[in-house]
Amino acid sequence: MIRQAVKERKTLETAVSVSIGLDGSGKADIATGVGFFDHMLTLLAKHGFLDLQVKAQGDLQVDCHHTVEDCGIVLGEALKAAVGDKSGIHRYGSCFIPMDEALAQVVLDFSGRPYLVFEAEIPKITLGNYDTEMTEEFFRAVAVASGMTLHIRVLYGKNVHHIIEAVFKAFARALAEAVAADPRVQGVMSSKGAL
């Protein structure tokens, strides 16, 4: 079973392409024009055992909003396509990740019912050309486009870089758990027989 997908999105604001392999080795090829965001997507690939390529050109002369959000949309679409009908996967994933003084928790469900709960007080600052408030927008876009129920909680932390990095790493590990193939799972992980 090949669990990979390629998706693209072109608008007057951005051009984004994503290639993803769920059974990868953590190989990343990321170029969005937003340095901190590239760093986070590279971490996502490494800690999620994904082979991930993300290429984006956006209206960064405005700000990073459209680029980051559209990357989230296309990544979510690629995840949805790579997971397919969800048969044979765990469906759920959860992880706590510490990053020095920060602690983040991510719990997710490939339910087909997109929803985001984002409980994180992240100071609104700019890291390079990345607006930290885009963290929530990115994960909302991923959740909606992939059909994922996603809960993100930052329990504590002071350093903004550490807080956001802990969130991305926790998401990566929860994602790896949720999409893991398990021969014990016959069909989809649902008593209804469908997701």
Automatic annotation (TrEMBL):
One GO cellular component, as annotated: cytoplasm
PROSITE patterns in the record: IGP_DEHYDRATASE_1, IGP_DEHYDRATASE_2
Pfam families assigned: IGPD
GO terms, molecular function: imidazoleglycerol-phosphate dehydratase activity
Taxonomy, superkingdom: Bacteria
Coarse class of the protein's main subcellular location: cytoplasm
Pathway(s) this gene product operates in, as recorded in its UniProt entry: Amino-acid biosynthesis; L-histidine biosynthesis; L-histidine from 5-phospho-alpha-D-ribose 1-diphosphate: step 6/9
Keywords noted in UniProt: Amino-acid biosynthesis, Cytoplasm, Histidine biosynthesis, Lyase
Key word Cytoplasm present: yes
Family of the protein in this entry: Belongs to the imidazoleglycerol-phosphate dehydratase family.
Name assigned to this protein: Imidazoleglycerol-phosphate dehydratase
Organism of this sequence: Phascolarctobacterium faecium
Gene: hisB
